[in-house]
Amino acid sequence: MDNSRDPEIQALFDSAEHPLDDQVFGDKVMASTLGSPRRSGLAKAAIGAALVFCLLLTAPLLPEPALALGRLMLIPLYTPDNAVAAFLISPVNTLALPVGMLVLLLWFALRKLSA
Amino acid sequence: MAHKPIPYGKAAEAMIVGLARSGDREAFAELVRRRQSWIRNLMRRFCHDDHLADDLAQLVFLQAWRYIRSLQQPDRFGAWLRRLAVNTWLQHYRAHDPIRNADQLDDTDVAAESPAGMALDLDRALASLPEAPRLCIVLSYNEGMTHEEIAELTELPAGTVKSHIRRGTERLRRILTDYNNGARNHGQ
């Protein structure tokens, strides 16, 4: 494929480049990263698994509203951005919530059946 | 308290990327220092709006911070960052102007955009191009990418990329000629 470029247009591009370095921009970027804490895939999986495990342990003792609250606690771990990041970084981590929820659902179903 | 950056001097970028991947904020700040001019200029070429360009550049670096762990080859940081920049621009464009047909080059406004005697401004000339041709032209002339690389990055067919670059170049040349003729007439 012909990748040749017009030399006059190329010269225009080359001469139009001007440096844009300032501390303010860098500080703004770094401030925005502060509001975007990165949890490692492993840490997120561990937190999710621990919460699911706690729910499973305490489920028989808790009233229904407390269980609902417990389920809600898992949601912040999987905001859309984090879910994308988790999917990109660690498939295992991405599976933690669905598997955890599936286990919970099975647990509730068994409880209902045995009641 | 004043923030005192760690002096990385001329440390290799790949090493700094490695540190940033492990969560070192100072290392990432150094990457922002080194790459901000390039990304901000690139965004200005794409969108012809300095404030929007800086906002989008900030978004690019924020994405970079979030996903830098997924970068497997630290020595490919530049190409990876450019991909993030292009994707950020495409997402912004699609979200804000989904109806406009970017595949068509409308020649009707060339004269209006380049009146005789107009101070030649590359960004203004680029702004007269529709989004897709402008993106291809910038990636070709500003970034030195081949047509195949642009096609792969933008997910446009290679023939379309080639056509955008050829017609976009012709259009920029016409603007340049208009400007030169205008300047010559003005000088007489």
The low-confidence parts of chain B are: 101-119
Rg calc of chain B: 19 Å
Q: Quickly count the helices of chain B.
A: 9
Helix content of chain B: 55-70%
CATH superfamily of the largest domain in chain B: RNA polymerase sigma factor, region 2, helix turn helix motif
Q: What does this entry look like structurally?
A:
The complex is a heterodimer of chains A (115) and B (188). Chain A has 115 residues and is mainly alpha-helical. Chain A has a domain at 38-114. Chain A is 74% helix and 0% strand. Chain A contains 6 helices and no strands. The radius of gyration of chain A is 25 Å and the shape is elongated. Residues 84-94 of chain A have low confidence and may be disordered. Chain B has 188 residues and is mainly α. Chain B folds into 2 domains: 9-99, Orthogonal Bundle (Rna Polymerase Sigma Factor, Chain: A); 100-188, Winged helix-like DNA-binding domain superfamily/Winged helix DNA-binding domain (Arc Repressor Mutant, subunit A, Orthogonal Bundle), CATH 1.10.10.10. Chain B is built from 9 helices and no strands. The longest helix of chain B is centred in the C-terminal third of the chain and has 30 residues, at 158-187. Chain B is elongated. Mean pLDDT of chain B is 81; it is low at 101-119. The interface between A and B is medium-sized, with 32 and 36 residues.
